[in-house]
């Protein structure tokens, strides 16, 4: 059992170091919104009958925060799916343009190629929104890190009941050997499985997988599940348990979301689309 005080939400050596490196000023509005959402969710959870100040009340409150954030991001997800499908529809036209201008390096040809590519992208409705849902979550994660760090240092603006619940959750994890490690490993496993068996099958292969560029893209795509899981394992053990829990619940949402997209709106040309077409 850990001998750390229950209020610890980050290792003491990491907390001041990381807190001093991050630009908290611009995150203040986001941190305030996260705190307000957590306080509201906690109130709802307690009124629903969950014991006030318990680890369960904190866990459910954070899960509700995930639901609110991810639901707010659904319009971006829809645009991402539409952009992926538009890019797949435009691939034949873009391939013809690339083949037509292959080996032509004069300025006039380069300008003409760029203009034709731009026209093809516009015609098929291509929009570069692929990373927006993931990027939009970054401020929320940093703001939650700030909120939990303030709880750990005793300088939190959250209601006393929410602070007590957060500390109880950390104490509960510290009291069970290996539970914190299990949360991090579970998060990495969900992210690996989502990338490997849901995201990659819904990603069309390169136009020419045998070319050096195409082969490099295939290798990069194959490494993505390992990179995502490895990233979680690298940083997860130094994060507050509350942040790891948020990450795990959000990863489960992503898995369900990717499964729904692959089932009902697969990207044309992908393995998921072929599986749906041929049943």
Name some characteristics of this structure:
2 domains; disordered N terminus; 279 residues; mainly alpha; elongated; 11 helices
Secondary-structure blueprint:
Blueprint: H1 14-21, H2 28-47, H3 55-72, H4 74-100, H5 107-123, H6 132-152, H7 160-175, H8 179-199, H9 212-236, H10 241-264, H11 271-278
Characterise the protein shown here.
With 279 residues, the protein is mainly α. The chain folds into 2 domains: 1-175, no CATH class; 178-279, no CATH class. The chain is built from 11 helices and no strands. The longest helix is centred in the N-terminal third of the chain and has 27 residues, at 74-100. The protein starts with 13 loop residues before the first helix and ends with a helix.
Helix content: over 70%
> Main β-sheet: number of strands, strand sense, barrel status?
none
- What structural category characterises the helix and strand content? mainly alpha
- Count, helices: 11
Q: For the CA atoms, what is the radius of gyration?
A: 23 Å
Number of strands: 0
What is the residue-averaged pLDDT? 85
Unreliable runs: 1-21
Number of self-contained structural domains: 2
Distance between the termini: 52 Å
N to C succession of SSEs: HHHHHHHHHHH
Strand percentage? under 5%
- Overall, the morphology is elongated
């Amino acid at each position: 059992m850990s001998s750390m005080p229950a209020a610890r939400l980050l290792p003491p050596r990491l907390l001041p170091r990381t807190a001093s490196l991050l630009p908290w000023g611009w995150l203040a509005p986001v941190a305030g919104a996260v705190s307000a959402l957590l306080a509201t969710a906690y109130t709802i959870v307690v009124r629903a009958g969950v014991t006030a100040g318990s680890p369960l009340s904190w866990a459910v409150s954070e899960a509700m925060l995930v639901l609110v954030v991810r639901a707010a991001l659904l319009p971006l997800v829809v645009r991402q799916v539409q952009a992926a499908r538009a890019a797949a529809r435009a691939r034949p036209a873009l391939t013809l343009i690339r083949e037509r201008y292959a080996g032509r390096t004069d300025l006039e040809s380069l300008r003409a190629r760029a203009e034709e590519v731009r026209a093809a992208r516009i015609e098929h409705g291509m929009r570069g929104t692929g990373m927006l849902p993931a990027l939009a979550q970054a401020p929320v994660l940093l703001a939650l890190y700030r909120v939990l760090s303030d709880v750990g240092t005793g300088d939190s603006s959250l209601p006393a009941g929410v602070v007590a619940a957060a500390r109880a959750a950390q104490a509960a994890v510290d009291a069970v050997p290996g539970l914190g490690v299990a949360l991090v490993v579970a998060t990495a496993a969900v992210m690996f499985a989502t990338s490997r068996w849901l995201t990659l099958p819904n990603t069309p292969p390169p136009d020419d997988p045998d070319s050096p560029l195409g082969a490099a893209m295939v290798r990069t795509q194959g490494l993505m599940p390992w990179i995502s899981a490895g990233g979680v394992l690298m940083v997860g053990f130094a994060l507050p348990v509350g942040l790891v829990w948020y990450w795990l619940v959000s990863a489960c949402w992503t898995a369900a979301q990717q499964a729904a997209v692959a089932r009902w709106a697969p990207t044309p040309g992908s393995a998921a689309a072929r599986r749906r077409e041929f049943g």
